Amino acid sequence: MRRIAFFILAWLGSVAAMAQPDTLSITLENVKYPYPVSFMPLKVEGQDIRMAYMDVKPTSANGKTVMLFHGKNFGGYYWGNVIKALTAKGYRVIVPDQIGFGKSSKPFIHYSFHKLATFNKKLLDTLGVQKATIMGHSMGGMLATRFTLMYPNTVDKLLLEDPIGLEDYRTFVPYQSAEQDYATELKTSFESVKNYYQTSYFTQWKPEYDYLVKIGAGVSKSADFPRYAKVAALTFEMIYEQPVCYEFGLIKVPTVLFTGKEDKTIVGKALLSDEERARHGQYKLLGPATAKKIPGCKLIEFDNCGHIPHIEVPDKFLKELMANL
Length: 325
Hints:
alpha/beta
């Protein structure tokens, strides 16, 4: 009986391992998203690629649409609770994985926020959506800002959740070429990702955040990881070289800025001294300063919260989100 029990336990362990694989494909085919994923074909710089997205319709529609832009180290998979809350209130929710991220293609192209914005506009046009509220988190906030500046007539409202780019990283983060960034990205491991997430994104780590690390680090074991790492370096270069902070004053749509007061995110933090890190990335200061730059911007701050309010303080965040749509 003991031998039978042993083999049963071993079999269950292997099933569990298959259910949550350690190695992920660089387009996350083996990661389950909270809602069905579709793909839009694109032809970019002579390459046939595809853009993944979720298009989640409510049971009782209010006729309005919200589009969610993810951050650099994420994909649409981490928006589940936000999608559920929005659709419950009647909103259609469109959640793309940007080209170079998530389940979308990882092409070697020139990455720019302008280019990514055109892809998202094409997605809205393809889906027959003329106007939408645009919400961006982290890097998605930079993209949402660029999208709004390019297509103001398409945007009902701009919602920014702890966007990066509230300061110009070029003025204090030492320059690194894409090749140097690529060499750094190749060193990615479970330990390095977890350490970064723990020290940069959350005020206190909880076991339920581990899934973010499993996805973020799981691709590093893929045979195609060098391509993923190269694209990550190219998009780091995009963030570094294409600031939006000088154009906040040009935004002409209603804007709400949500920030965690303990957020200390800096793109390129590893390249800075402790003194420089203390001087920058202080969202308790950057939030109010940025809100003053954006005409009519409303600032909502969360105490004891870091870079991802919709995960760290979900109830508070969703309450404020619903009250400010």
